[in-house]
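Supplementary Note 2. Why include the ligand at all?

Several targets in our set were suspected to adopt different conformations when bound, so apo predictions alone were not considered sufficient. For every target with a known small-molecule partner we therefore ran a joint prediction. The input for zinc ion is given below.
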Amino acid sequence: MIAPSILSADFANLERDVRMLNASDAAWIHVDIMDGVFVPNLSFGLPVTEAIKRHAEKPLDVHLMIVQPERYLEDFKKAGADVLTVHYEASTHLHRSLQQIRALGMKAGVALNPHTPVDLLADVLGDLDLVCLMSVNPGFGGQAFIPQTFKKVERLRRMIDDAGTPTLIEIDGGVGLQNAADLKKAGANVLVAGNAVFKANDPVATIRQLNEA
Ligand code: DX5
Ligand code: ZN
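The joint prediction is reproduced in token form.
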């Protein structure tokens, strides 16, 4: 599945860009929320997420790069999130947050920074619908893919297969046609792509190629 990241869209033409994604092979629309504290950048928040939702015909995959994400779970449900991902590093009571996300009727995701080992998820795999492996340090689009991610995907794939859970593996950061096929081979299910899609001459064709890679 391909989840283009709206962070790389033209914010003055969000409706146009969301319609383009509606008409593409994208599975989800990835929505990056940054608070300037957990990550060194600000993106946008609830009103913009709501505006995207008004035009989106695909599920919103909301990635919270914020401290104390538990304060906003219900707000993002109301704003239209279908998948809601919190950061491991920002969650003191991760298990509680995951349960709340599911109780609100969303798929529950956890994101890991590049330095956070996948092994730390062993005791919450059953409470997770998705693990987002950050393949860049979160905060900005257009960064270089960190190759160590491949080992993490393979290790997480083994953990999930051993546990027998249907948890999806998502890769976020520096993903493009140059690594999509290898990431799928390593066991990834969802590929987030920002710049690779929105800076391409033909975003719809690029999404199709990523899908078929
Ligand atoms: C980075 C964000 C990513 C970003 C990916 O902090 O979480 O979702 O939009 O952008 P690219 O694909 O350009 O690296
Ligand atoms: Zn993201």
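Helices lie at 14-22, 46-55, 73-79, 94-103, 149-163, 180-186, 195-198, 203-212. The longest strand covers residues 81-87. Comparable summaries for the other entries are listed in the accompanying table.
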